[in-house]
Design brief:
Elements (H helix, E strand, L loop, with lengths): L2 H12 L5 E6 L4 H13 L4 E5 L16 H4 L1 E5 L2 H10 L3 E4 L9 E3 L9 E5 L8 H5 L3 E4 L11 H18 L10 H15 L2
Parallel strand pairs: 1-2, 1-6, 2-3, 4-6, 4-7, 5-7
């Protein structure tokens, strides 16, 4: 491995964001899942959670995910409760995004503090999130939109949301100083180096 490649991987590992993740519930299109993994990796997320309890887990190719699948760990669940339990054990606040008829239940994406532990939950392309996923969450947010069309493709919604998280975290210098311990960073670097040799 060249020094340039080693330095690049080390820099990426040091900017990985502890306390920021994405949860997808029954997202059936593998291209959407792949696009989400690419966006997650690009903002420094190293683990994404997938819940499949009505749809089958989609087959994600390395080509469509642009190798993001290689660098982002995927943790699968068949139960919303089990997934949320794991997130809460790691001190995450859980934020869903869903179009409620009662607008008073929603907060703006831009009102969320995404510098704190945040798990951002997105639902199925057609039916959105399940009632269970919504009921057990801490808050429901919407991306402000000014046009007649009031919804975005899921991969676009994830991208808008994650780059708002990146903006907030950059302003706080969170990409310059890792929240992972030295031991965790060392382990993560070794893991990434082993992956890069495959």
């Amino acid at each position: 491995m060249t020094d340039k490649r080693l330095n690049r991987i080390t820099k990426v590992v040091n900017s990985r964001q502890k306390g920021l993740t994405v949860v997808l519930e029954n997202v059936h299109d593998p291209h959407n899942v792949s696009a989400v993994l690419r966006t997650a990796e690009s903002v420094g997320i190293d683990k994404v959670y997938l819940i499949y309890n009505t749809d089958k887990y989609p087959r994600i190719s390395k080509v469509s995910s642009a190798s993001a699948k290689k660098w982002v760990d995927v943790e699968k669940y068949s139960s919303v409760k089990d997934c949320y339990k794991k997130l809460r054990s790691e001190k995450f606040k859980i934020y869903t995004t869903h179009m409620w008829e009662d607008d008073r239940k929603n907060v703006s994406l831009y009102s969320l503090d995404l510098t704190k532990n945040a798990a951002l939950v997105f639902g199925n392309e057609h039916s959105g999130l399940s009632e269970e996923a919504l009921a057990l969450a801490d808050k429901n947010f919407l991306i402000p939109m000014k046009g007649l069309i009031q919804s975005l493709n899921i991969s676009v919604s994830v991208a808008v949301t994650l780059f708002e998280a990146l903006r907030q975290r950059e302003l706080k210098g969170m990409y310059d100083k890792s929240r992972y311990t030295k031991a965790e960073l060392k382990s993560k670097l070794e893991y990434y180096l082993s992956k890069s040799k495959r």
